[in-house]
What we know:
Elements: H1 2-10, E1 18-20, E2 23-26, E3 33-36, E4 41-44, H2 45-56, E5 67-68, E6 72-74, E7 77-80, E8 85-87, H3 90-95, H4 97-100, H5 112-118, H6 132-147, E9 151-152, E10 166-172, E11 176-181, E12 186-191, H7 201-217, E13 226-229, H8 233-238, E14 248-249
Parallel strand pairs: 10-13
Antiparallel strand pairs: 1-2, 2-14, 3-4, 5-14, 6-7, 7-8, 8-9, 10-11, 11-12
Amino acid sequence: MGLIVWIVIFVKNINDLLHYMDDTFSYEMDLTLEYYAPYKTHYSKKQVALLHLWDELDLPHNIKKQEFRPSLMIIGFHIDPSCMSMTISHAAREELANWALNIFPLLRLTLQSSYSKIAGKTLCNAGIFLNRAVIRDLAWFADRMCHMHSLYFFVDEEWEFTQVNLIILCNASTVGLGFYIPAKALSFASSIPTNPLISNILFYEALMVASTIAWATALPTPLRWLLIYTDSLDMDNIFLCMVITSSCSS
């Protein structure tokens, strides 16, 4: 499928096409529709061009999967560009908890106790006894996921490095954590107990970033642009930002 999508983009010049397995989806800015004779239906220009390519390559497709509307179900997610939101049904949340984390990325932090519990295990099918921390976190995770609403997207606001009001450097390890404010020649640090209740580094990285933001927002003068340096790619991935314009799928 990857090669076919390459042909779509670079040979047929159908831009901004995404795919997952045998599902393809995109957006259309031009609302002028074109007629696709085999289905006796009008679709967006991109969609008709894609269907003609499927026919040219003799790839099977069916009318049920050809959709063009203001909001769509895409690989199990309900995408609504008008509301700038993405959500998943409550039934799917219960059946596909891991898949639902794409909608609620901040809930991933509640799994750190589970990661700690399975760390170092070598037997693939061995049972694992759940401790109080894991049960508490998973119960909270399930409750929050059932009651949370859609994930909303906003257009990124770009700003220059020179506009930054304050720069903070933060870091964490399994022995300590802290953050430093160069402009104020001020730093905060704390050691981690030898036998901590939580020993997962992801938790301490997240705690450090959260503590940095909490300290900055409590300053007497509100900040508009805060720049935080961290060496953790996981922390960057937690704060996901996506932009959706409008949608069509095939």
